[in-house]
Amino acid sequence: MARQGALTLLQGVRDGASLSDQAGALKALSPSDQARAGRLAAETLRHLAQADSVIATYVNRKPTPQVADILRLATVELLQLGGAAHGVVDAAVNLTRGAGKRGQAAAGMVNAVLRKVSQHEGWAELPPQRLPDWLRKPVVATYGRDATKAIEAAHQAAAPLDLTLKPATAALEGGDTLPTGSLRLHGPVQVSALPGFATGDWWVQDAAAAMPVRLLAPQPGERIADLCAAPGGKTLQLAAAGANVTAIDISAHRLKRVAENLTRCNLTAELVTADALEWRPEIAPDAILLDAPCSATGTIRRHPDLPLLRDGSGIPDLVALQASMIDHALSILAPGGRLVFATCSLLPDEGEAQIAAALARHPGVTVETPALPGIDPAWITPEGGIRLRPDYWPERGGMDGFFMARLRKPA
Ligand SMILES: C[S@@+](CC[C@H](N)C(=O)[O-])C[C@H]1O[C@@H](n2cnc3c(N)ncnc32)[C@H](O)[C@@H]1O
């Protein structure tokens, strides 16, 4: 059942739907089969190029897209996940037989190809899957070829689960406390079964995603606006620090997630559905967090479907939106207040260049670069921001790609 589910997800991605948007497609499966289907599909997407190169060694004629997905799924299960040949090949043949007339005709070929694939040597030596050209070009231009390869290698490893703990919460057993303060758990875990979930002692948040609020350094009682808040990981951090938080998001639907997260964690914030470009508070905030909409190219470890679903065409509009959001945020911020701009992007246009342009548009605004625990000085950019990359902390399991900078408005 899980394999059929994974196949449905892969086909959905081919049709343009993201893995997370397809949760409803697996409703008929048990929760554990849904989770397994999601893991299988994600692992297949992380190794499509390697799977295709191995399969190409053994097929004579190009299979239909559906049969190609069955072959890819089984190849990844065999060579990446160490699945037992007999079970994986039989399951793939059954899936092929169920795929209409053309599938029935292909069942013999799938059986023969996968038996050879199961004996294939050299999988571990294959180079990591490359980013698509629209993304690879700017990444190579920014970080160089070696770093790009390291980023691609990091994308192949599934992301560990990071938790942000409420202040004074004890670390969970078996977790590693990271230098930046997040708690990292390894291996598949059922989040809702972990101790402290029901009591809201922590929330799931990648170690890199937890850094913008640490850079903002919220103080108890400060009035802080979180301009793009949903699903709310950073709102929770701000509220847990004792700030007086207003969480704004354009999506009422996504703000519901913020409300649910706040309730579970016994934290409070004022929630406002609004366009951040138009929202004007009666009292100017002491600080603003602007975790702006972006290409999300720093999150490919978690979203291996992203390179297949995007072509980069939306990025100039996002860059323009981010610049307008920075300008508006500075206009509503209290004099002397601080603004943290952050994006989960690998692209400097959505990070370093955005800050350089903002400084040129706003004379008097400065960048502050406080020393933060766990932040390597090499990660500080010439503009004074912090650049985080998926290939950092390779021995610990990596982190999402992020950029953040703290701006100070003149008093
Ligand atoms: C990167 S996500 C924010 C993640 C969030 N800060 C967190 O830590 O969980 C960007 C958010 O911006 C919201 N958004 C997009 N355009 C917006 C706008 N014009 N005004 C307010 N929110 C917007 C999206 O709905 C999305 O929830």
Outline:
By secondary structure, this protein is an alpha/beta fold. The protein is built from 14 helices and 12 strands. The mean pLDDT is 96.
What's the level 1 CATH class of the largest domain? Alpha Beta
End-to-end span in angstroms? 62 Å
Could you give me the name of the CATH homologous superfamily of the largest domain? Vaccinia Virus protein VP39
Structurally, how many domains make up the residues?
Answer: 2
CATH architecture of the largest domain: 3-Layer(aba) Sandwich
Given the structure, what is the number of helices?
A: 14
Helix and strand composition category: alpha/beta
The ligands found in this model are: S-adenosylmethionine
Q: Uncertain spans, ≥5 residues at pLDDT below 50? A: none
Can you summarize the main beta sheet? 8 strands, mixed
Order of helices and strands: HHHHHHHHEEEEHEHEHEEHHEHEEE
Beta-strand level of the residues, as a percent range? 5-15%
Mean pLDDT, as a whole number? 96
Shape: elongated
What is Rg? 23 Å
Question: Helical residue percent?
Answer: 40-55%
Classify the fold: give the CATH topology of the largest domain: Rossmann fold
Find the count of extended strands (DSSP E, 2+ residues): 12
